[in-house]
Amino acid sequence: MGNYPCILRTGERVDADALYEEFHTICARDLTSAHQGQTAWSGVRIFDMVGADRVAELPLLTELLDRLGRHNVVMVNYYNMAPHSEQHEHRDQSGNLLFGISRIHIPLRTNASAVLRIERRDYHLPVGEVWAIDTSGRHAAVNGGELDRVHLVIDVKRAPETAFCFPRMTAAVYIHLAQFVAIMAWKLARDTVLQPRTIADRAHYVLRMALGKAREHRA
User: Fold this and answer.
1) Can you tell me the distance from the alpha carbon of 89 to that of 165, in angstroms, rounded to the nearest whole number?
2) pLDDT < 50 regions, the chain
3) Do 117 and 70 reside in the same domain of the chain?
4) Residues of 109-124 as b/e, b for ≥16 C-beta within 10 angstroms?
């Protein structure tokens, strides 16, 4: 959509080896299928806004989240993609700039054939680099290599501590978000007829995001 790439290389780096060792020791055994029917893509939820919280088990992750501001963190997951696997192209409501959220991706293990496909352009994310993605853009993941790809994924709210994870709000960004709203409105109308059960789930998520932002303004 326009010149807005929906991905940002922040320039920040982390100690990926140490974070991976912590994940592998404490959480790797808890990986489960991250999407129905896709056993090659697995994940483990560490934190979310509806009750999951394993952060205290992971001291190195705790330090990273403290630098971001724990009150700014919406969700934390580790994801593993098996060799020669692919995640289909899609858009998300979570990790979405429209709701003031950005999705941080930090590769802890990867290979040269592992890419994120954002707005139909491929990006290889090197180990330890911190990237930010706006999931309102079309995105997919491909691991074409022989090794697992492990990413630490953190959704954060816009705040002074997380400003480096958000794009400048240019005309291209506003045009993209307007187009995204139009696409979602069309899908909502379609699913009201074809998949009415999905409407309640989407409405609940949007309401939760709206209430969260309202609480921020009152605070």
Assistant:
1) 22
2) 1, 210, 213-214, 217-219
3) yes
4) bbbeebbbbbbeeeee
